[in-house]
Amino acid sequence: MSQNTDQLFKEAFEKASETIIKLPPDIRLRLYAYYKQATLNYSHDFVYKEVDLIRGFKFNAWKQVTHLTQEEAKILYIDLVKSLKL
């Protein structure tokens, strides 16, 4: 992982976390999925117990991006935040 990507990812996360703009649910789910993959790197051995519908949606969004590397997920997160012009 490049230090530049890590710094850009951190800055993008801060922008997304601090925004007062109400983002649509699909955008929030994509941000969540990219963030989880970028920081935790989904393991196919991960055991998940569905507690409620929201967690189910979040888990599904994350599972859809598990083919990405952590670096790719960071870059997509950065690009998505840039496209939102926060």
From TrEMBL:
Cited PROSITE patterns: ACB_2 (PS51228)
GO molecular function, one term: fatty-acyl-CoA binding
Protein name per UniProt: Phosphatidylserine decarboxylase
Pfam families reported in the protein's UniProt record: ACBP (PF00887)
InterPro entries: Acyl-CoA-binding_protein, Acyl-CoA-binding_sf, FERM/acyl-CoA-bd_prot_sf
Keywords of the record: Lipid-binding
Location of the ACB domain: 5-86
Species annotation: Paenimyroides viscosum
Source taxonomy: Bacteria, Pseudomonadati, Bacteroidota, Flavobacteriia, Flavobacteriales
One BP term from GO: fatty acid metabolic process
